[in-house]
Description:
Blueprint: E1 8-16, E2 19-29, E3 32-37, E4 52-61, E5 65-67, H1 75-78, H2 83-86, E6 90-95, H3 129-138, E7 144-150, H4 151-158, H5 168-184, E8 188-192, H6 196-199, H7 203-214, E9 219-223, H8 231-245, E10 249-251, H9 265-276, E11 281-285, E12 291-294, E13 305-311, E14 320-321, H10 322-329, H11 333-340, E15 343-348, H12 353-366, E16 372-375, H13 383-391, E17 399-400, H14 417-424
Parallel strand pairs: 1-4, 5-6, 6-7, 7-8, 8-9, 9-10, 10-11, 11-17, 15-16
Antiparallel strand pairs: 1-2, 2-3, 12-15, 12-16, 13-14, 13-15
Amino acid sequence: MNPKGQPVLIRASAVLPDGVLEDARVLIQDGVITGIHGPTDQFILQDGPPVLELDFGAGRLLPGFIDLHTHDDRAVLVNPTMKNKVSQGVTTVVTGNCGVSLAPLKIDRRPPAPLDLICDTPEGFYGDFASYLKALDDAPAAVNVLAQVGHSSLRVGAVADLTRAASSSEIKVMRKKLEESLEAGAIGFSTGLFYPPSQAAPTEEVIELGKALHDHAGLHTTHMRDEANHITDSLEETFRIGREADIPVVISHHKCSGADNHGRSAETLPLIDAAMKKQRVGLDVYPYIASSTMLNPQRMMGASRVLVTWSVPHPEHAGRDLDDIAKEMGLPPLEAAEKLREAAGLLASEPQALQLRYLQTLIDVAGDKNSTIVFPLPMDLIEPFMHRARASKTALLQGTGKDASDAASPRPTPVVRGVDILPRR
């Protein structure tokens, strides 16, 4: 670490928006880039400590990466060095995805899934968004944080019965909390209509809340209601929310889950392209065949194999194949999955030998830590999504995200994507 105030001069090829400046000189003073100069440019240094020169030769100096889709809400507080992100060049993370955020929510019990994937105790949540942001300011992480408000978190705090639509008075409570959060500094609002706390929420509920974003120039990201057989219906719902609330929407981790839907990107991506011509729509993807989430017997996306990564009532089954557990229990796999809840796991759609080794690697990396991983589509079908994210000229968040809860989570998602997503990208 260089002394405070000491200027730093970095010699490397600098990657800029309009190309690469070879043999550049990048000057940093008081923690701010004050100049990017060519090899023959003249520049003046401030009076003060001697310059610390770092010569990276043929190396390239890049802007920091933005990890567009993370569940680092708690990680940035309890693991502020964020080495797994910084080591990949990530300098900014977007949190509060899939309808799940640590604020604004005051709760006196174990949070329901999937909120328990980022924190499984009520003490880890914040009653208002300003308090969460203050906690980030008081102990800054090594990365910048763009934090969203989660719809499921709002519902858990305001809706008496999560199996029904919110009443008009409950929507008013949620909207007030959302508006206060946006005023405090939240960048947007995410939904996880796939997950139990929000499955009963009708489109109209989301639209009414989404309208709060319009006046605050906020962003709406969504883990859509269905990424499998009814994916086109979910896309239309997403487009409608954006149109009627007049807000930008980002489709989180876009994919076509389940073997029956492999290859349907040829159907979904043109729909997204057409919508982009009429409204503000973006998407993000992750370059993996793995999905990791709560173990929900009704929502396993046509997986041909499931590895249980943690189970509250049966911790002894962590790392085991659900089919083997079901045989021991003398139950069908779906009933065995119900017995294991609260739980999570890995879901696979094509158990080839290489993939089986990959699955075991994930379990080994996770050790005795927890979550469910789904493998909804093979790698050769991911490339169209990756290409679409790379090629987009949309000004919305669009590109690659990890979608991992990382080691600081009480139920860490045991996916290698938490540490190597950008090399794959």
